[in-house]
């Protein structure tokens, strides 16, 4: 039987990229998955999966979602927006959006889903951070790096508060991963091939990570195999910061 047999999991930003790879892996390991995205059409045809159309910037939408879904064993907060630029390139609207989607959305999902986890006395929360956070300062990732550092603080606080009540909360910090949004950012440079090569060349392994390689870590943290880890930063970066 699978590593998540009998468990219910919810994955935000589940339609594409790392979220999508995780949805598919969780299902393959026996979970029933609630996949949340603004593009639920992309999830059509998956078995043991309900696709929910929610804009994660919308607090009322998240509350409605929690009422519809009920108790879950695993909450994977994967949604996040990447903006380029320094502090001088970051108007307050961009700053506010980065906070809303990268930090406030997980504050809201945890507040919505944690009470039922506490009642059951178990639950694993996995939050998507990044190497660009308190782990490392990356040029031109100002709002992104700031909010992904906040994710680490949020993760550690939740872990500390509920460590005696069966709840674990961990953060994933990937390096550069080949996903649709990364490809969009490479295209936006005007020379996709060259940008792809540059991104790959700065990796010690000479290649980007795959969404499946991040999903494998999310699976470990979601499952009972990781029962002795909480409040921890889990780096998966092909040796980038080594
Ligand atoms: P992706 O762009 O491939 O997929 C993002 C998904 O989020 C899409 O399905 C999109 O429809 C959905 N989405 C966007 N805005 C939404 C909203 N407001 N409400 C609901 N859904 C929304 O993304 P990815 O590259 O796999 O990134 C996923 C997470 O991993 C993000 O938090 C990102 O910061 C983090 N991350 C990515 C990398 C990387 O190199 N790709 C590295 C480190 C961390």
From TrEMBL:
It comes from the Bacteria. InterPro entries: NAD(P)-bd_dom_sf, Sc_DH/Rdtase_CS, SDR_DHRS6-like, SDR_fam. One of its GO terms (molecular function) is oxidoreductase activity. Pfam families: adh_short_C2. Keywords: NAD, Oxidoreductase. CDD domains: DHRS6_like_SDR_c. Belongs to the short-chain dehydrogenases/reductases (SDR) family. This is SDR family oxidoreductase. The lineage of its organism: Bacteria, Pseudomonadati, Pseudomonadota, Alphaproteobacteria, Sphingomonadales. It comes from Sphingomonas piscis.
